[in-house]
Structures are given as C-alpha cells and as structure tokens.
Design a protein that fits this description.
The chain has about 230 residues and is of the alpha/beta class. Helix content is about 35%, strand content about 30%.
C-alpha cells in the first residue's frame, strides 16, 4: 500500500548501511534521516567517506539499506523484490554520475535513447524525445558522436539528457562536476537547474564542490555517516 504525501517525494528514516571488506565491517550510514520535498534542488555535502554517495544510492534505489525506512514518491521501498525495485527505479529516477557512465560503443543519440528502449517505447517516440533533449542540452549536432569524441562537458550534457528523457520524478546526481573544470562545472549546474526547474523535477546532488553547494536551495551536511547539520540558502 502506498503512503502518499503531496509535498514529500523522498523520506529516509533511521537508515543504516554497512559494507564488508574481507573480514572487516565498515559502517557507512548511522541512522540517517532526511526528507526531500517535490521540486527541491538539494545538495548532500561532506568529505569523502562521509556517507553521501551511499545515501544517494539508497535514495535512487541502486543500493539497499541494512535497516531503516525509505519511501520514494509514495512507495515504501524496503522489502520490495529486486525486480520491482528495479522497475520503480527505472520509472521514477534519473541518474547523473561523476564519470558520466555513458556506453562507449553507443552514440550520444543511442545513449540518451537507451532508457526508452528498456521501457519498450516505439522508435518514433524515442526519436522525438531524444532529439528534444539533445537540443535542450545543445548537442543535437553531435547526436552521432560516440563519447570518446566528446569533451567532458559534452559527455555530462549527454548524461543529463539521458537522465531527463524519461521525465523522472527525481534526478540523483553523484558529484556531477568532479570530473570537470570549474567553468564547465558551473555551466553544467546552471543547465541542470534550468532543465529541472522547467520540468518540475526534484534533484538531489552529492558534492563537496563549493560552487554546487552555494547553488542549492538546501544543503544537508554529513560527517562519518551521520547527518551533521542543515543549511537553507534561500
């Protein structure tokens, strides 16, 4: 049964996560609690090892917490089968990664079309949506280029188009500017904010980049797997 909240799209409560490295148990999250409202642009900030990427992966449905409660767009995610969690993730979440995660043997067009192909959309529908988003990110003339022929900023623009092409409820972005120079990184964040605002999409970003942190509506700081403090920039 869904627990629907018209304003809240993500709710994490008392999330705990550990990893095993050989015989060692490594704690990543300790009773992390965080909510995100619809349409927010939120940054999870903290040093490397603070737990921000782990929390982001749980929010995006990539990873499972050991304990706690997580609700995504009204759907309680704990206890779901892997196949159902994957289906919900594909429907509701778009991902932007530090390393772009584009498929090297596919063109920019094919990379953006890939989520639509997985969803079984018709070639006509795919083409309309892909070309719309490639045009929005300024790469319609590079649609047949493979990732290795594009700059870092262009690759991230392809990744943004791929994340938005299926009109997800939430975008999760893990250090989206970390592989870019400061000028390109600033342009990518500006582009993300513009496109997400136009679509009414929620965005949660993990970053330790000061520029990204200053661009957020709200910043949640993490330290050693725990929520440290929260700052509203509005």
């Amino acid at each position: 049964m869904q627990r629907k909240d018209v304003t809240m799209i993500i709710a994490c409560r008392d999330i705990t996560k550990t990893y095993r490295l050989g015989h060692t148990i490594v704690p990543a999250l300790h009773a992390a609690t965080m909510t995100v409202q619809r349409g927010e642009f939120v940054v999870i900030a903290g040093a490397s090892g603070s737990g921000k990427t782990t929390l982001l992966n749980i929010m995006g449905g990539i990873d499972r917490p050991d304990s706690g409660d997580y609700v995504l767009d009204g759907t309680p995610m704990m206890g779901l089968s892997e196949s159902l969690r994957t289906r919900i993730r594909r429907q509701k979440v778009g991902f932007v990664f530090q390393s772009f995660n584009l498929i090297p043997v596919l063109s920019a067009y094919e990379n953006v079309a890939y989520p639509l192909w997985l969803a079984g959309e018709s070639p006509k529908s795919q083409r309309e949506k892909v070309m719309y988003w490639l045009n929005r990110v300024g790469l319609s003339d590079q649609s047949q280029q493979r990732p290795n022929a594009l700059s870092g900023g262009q690759r991230q623009r392809v990744a943004i188009a791929r994340a938005l092409v299926k009109s997800p409820a939430v975008i999760v972005a893990d250090e989206p500017t970390a592989s870019l120079d400061s000028k390109t990184g600033a342009s990518i964040i500006e582009l993300m904010r513009e496109l997400i605002r136009d679509q009414g999409t929620t965005c949660v970003v993990s970053s330790h980049d000061t520029m990204v942190i200053q661009s957020a509506e709200r910043v949640v700081y993490m330290r050693d797997g725990r929520m440290d403090k929260e700052v509203n920039n509005q």
